[in-house]
Amino acid sequence: MTTTLVDVHLTEADLEAQLRADVVAGLAAVPKSLPPKWFYDQRGGELFDAITRLPEYYPTRTERALLTRAAPEIAAASKATTLVELGSGSSEKTRLLLTAFAEHEGLEMYVPQDVSESSIRFAADALAIEFPDLPVRGVVGDFTDTTATLPRAGHRLVAFLGGTIGNLEPDARAAFLHGVAEALDPGECLLVGIGLVTDPAVMIAAYDDEEGVTAEFNRNVLHVLNRRLGADFDPRMFEHVALWDAAHSWIEMRLRARREMQVRIPAVGTVVDFAAGEELRTEVSAKFMLDGFGGELTAAGFDPAHTWTDEASRFALVLARR
Ligand code: AVJ
């Protein structure tokens, strides 16, 4: 047991209010949609971990291989003394970076940021055993609010891994990148993991696996609404849909009503109607061209200094300097 310092910028009550607002707005919209952040309760986190081990889901293992290869160069090029990880979750991939930094003896602090305080504390306790001399200072908050919540300690490297930046639509993504640039001092770095545009069949299979784990993960958002808002969704009455939207360059996940339904959501005092076949959008996961993403970084005030990609060009790690 360690005592990790955690700054809480987002309370349970804030999250509850955000959930209600997202549900009210998203289910009144045409077409209906919900933000992907609500997938991740305890079961959602477990289902996502199971996804990362599926044969079809290449992003996690591809990124891990890239990190293993690039970590020493990342440590040397960034010269970071503080590693900030946005959306750290279990901080599993961070270990590779921390190990590389440990060899350079430069790192003085690790700052995991996540919406879940318990996952930060859990990760911090585990890391304290492997890296007993590394102070950990957690930040509970939304990765989109980084401008306000990034501690100003040392020479920072901000890591945003897993391809999660793809959950942001272009405007939100530009705002996010500008926000991070604003929060950093000249010379500090951002490390981003991005899914690259590849064969649509390969991309779609990653979001529509044989075993149906992703389908269960997708339907989990309805379980979350049932539990937290007292809603009466019947998740089995929604079919998992994953498609490649070439015009927007993103994978989209939807839940399609198998029949006409009426759903009560007591906590927000609404009743929502679904027509048979109506679809609820639950996630976009943008895939990038290296040039295009480099352009987005440049527009936000970064210099995309280093890029690492796998043999099949399915995923990339980009190190950008402010
Ligand atoms: C955690 C956002 C990177 O978009 O690939 C996995 C989430 N959704 N399978 C992704 C996800 C369906 C994942 N990210």
Main sheet attributes: strand count, strand direction, barrel closure: 8 strands, mixed
* Total strand segments: 14
What is the overall number of helices?
A: 10
Q: Roughly how many Å apart are the termini?
A: 37 Å
Summarize the structure.
This protein is α/β, with parallel strands linked by helices and 322 residues long. It has helices spanning 12-28, 42-52, 58-78, 94-104, 117-130, 146-149, 170-183, 200-206, 213-229, 290-299, and strands spanning 5-8, 32-33, 82-86, 109-114, 137-140, 156-160, 189-195, 238-245, 250-257, 261-265, 270-274, 279-286, 303-309, 315-321.
Describe this structure in words.
This protein is an alpha/beta fold. Helices cover 39% and strands 25% of the residues. The chain is built from 10 helices and 14 strands. It has helices spanning 12-28, 42-52, 58-78, 94-104, 117-130, 146-149, 170-183, 200-206, 213-229, 290-299; strands at residues 5-8, 32-33, 82-86, 109-114, 137-140, 156-160, 189-195, 238-245, 250-257, 261-265, 270-274, 279-286, 303-309, 315-321. An 8-stranded mixed β-sheet has the order 1-5-4-3-6-7-14-13, sandwiched between helices. It has a 4-stranded mixed β-sheet with strand order 2-12-9-8. The protein has a two-stranded antiparallel sheet with strand order 10-11. Strand 4, helix 5 and strand 5 form a beta-alpha-beta unit. Helix 2 packs antiparallel against helix 9 (213-229) and helix 3 runs parallel beside helix 4. The longest helix has 21 residues, at 58-78. The mean pLDDT is 93.
List the helices and strands and how they pair.
Layout: E1 5-8, H1 12-28, E2 32-33, H2 42-52, H3 58-78, E3 82-86, H4 94-104, E4 109-114, H5 117-130, E5 137-140, H6 146-149, E6 156-160, H7 170-183, E7 189-195, H8 200-206, H9 213-229, E8 238-245, E9 250-257, E10 261-265, E11 270-274, E12 279-286, H10 290-299, E13 303-309, E14 315-321
Parallel strand pairs: 1-5, 2-12, 3-4, 3-6, 4-5, 6-7
Antiparallel strand pairs: 7-14, 8-9, 9-12, 10-11, 13-14
Helix pairs in contact: 2-9, 3-4
This protein binds N,N,N-trimethyl-histidine.
